[in-house]
């Protein structure tokens, strides 16, 4: 069984890689889909991506919860990990998901631009989480 720091490192890096891919590759390509095909394209994308994002969010929640209870890690680092996860979940639920809903009805350039901006927050949070995990795994913040 992996230790908490290795598990948190793996989960945060997996999610950060996913989030960077979505931001740099997937979301910009949405603007290239012909409007008459957009609804079907987005529906297919959302169905397929849920097979990745569901387990990734699950891994983040589980490993962050495990980390939060670990006495191997400084309290400040545990609090930061929980706050970062909270921001990620709130931004996703309250901003990204509704924008996906709006886009699933039809192509909307303004909603797409907003989704790109919202996703910049998720990329930032995912990146900071990965750096935190790397620092913790290196033992710099452990108690």
Q: Ends: how far apart?
A: 21 Å
Main beta sheet: strand number and arrangement?
none
Indicate the radius of gyration in whole angstroms.
17 Å
Described by the principal axes of the CA atoms, the overall outline is elongated
Output mean pLDDT: 94
Portion in beta strands: under 5%
> How many extended strands?
0
Q: What is the helix fraction of residues, given as a range? A: over 70%
Task: Count helical runs.
Answer: 4
Low-pLDDT regions: none
Structural class: mainly alpha
Strand/helix succession? HHHH
The total number of structural domains is 1
Summarize it:
This protein is mostly helical. The protein has one domain. 85% of the residues lie in helices and 0% in strands.
């Amino acid at each position: 069984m992996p230790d908490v720091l290795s598990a948190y490192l793996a989960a945060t890096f997996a999610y950060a890689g996913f989030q960077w891919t979505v931001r740099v590759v997937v979301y910009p390509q949405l603007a290239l889909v012909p409007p008459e095909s957009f609804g079907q394209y987005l529906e297919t994308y959302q169905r397929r991506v849920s097979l990745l994002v569901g387990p990734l969010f699950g891994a983040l929640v589980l490993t962050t919860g495990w980390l939060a209870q670990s006495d191997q890690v400084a309290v400040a680092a545990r609090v930061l990990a929980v706050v970062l996860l909270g921001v990620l979940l709130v931004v996703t639920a309250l901003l990204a998901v509704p924008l996906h809903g709006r886009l699933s009805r039809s192509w909307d350039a303004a909603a797409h631009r907003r989704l790109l901006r919202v996703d910049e927050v998720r990329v930032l949070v995912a990146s900071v989480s990965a750096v935190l995990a790397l620092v913790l795994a290196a033992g710099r913040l452990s108690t």
